Amino acid sequence: MKIICIGRNYADHAKEMGSNIPTKPLVFMKPGSALLVNSKPFYYPEFTKNLHYELEIVLKISKNGRHIQPEFAKDYYQEIGLGIDFTARDLQHECKEKGHPWEIAKAFDHSAVIGKFVNLKTATIDGHLEFYLNKNGEKVQHGFTKDLIFPFDDLIVYVSKFFKLQKGDYIYTGTPAGVGPVAIGDELEGILVTPGGEKTLLNCAVK
Ligand code: MG
Fold this sequence. Notes:
CATH topology: Fumarylacetoacetate hydrolase, domain 2
Order of helices and strands: EHEEEEEEHHEHEEHEEEE
Oligomer: single chain
Bound molecules: magnesium ion
CATH class: Alpha Beta
């Protein structure tokens, strides 16, 4: 299993980071040891003083494939969920400044929080999904998939040129604007808006 992540996939988030809007998907990975499942608590790591949440829609890959063509991309994901791409922003800035890889800022243990999944058919209306993050009950991020720079199918096509997609892999599809710090004691709640109503898919307590 691998965790593939897409950076700067919403223009408003690229802007808040002072980054250019990418012309190709920006891809990085996290190892399996980064996963945090079943609403287990997240323990604030000692190596950062500026840990940020990034709420993202996560695709669960449903079958193996490489060099996937656009017309078949939808066959490769049937469930979506919400995840948090925890980021040590201070370390990430250091890595970026030096031109170094940013794994220590993005791929550390439990940096990939993942919640529950729903079947895509029950969750989507023509690909227009809405999702948001509450921090201690207050809405801090609000995303709409119509604003994706590279929609889900484009990501499947692009990523599978380089990496064989395997059943059970995850793709974190990028975060909208509103990223910010967490502190010990914070409660994060990720909500997906579906035709059947709002579904809380993710809960994460920072300890
Ligand atoms: Mg991210």
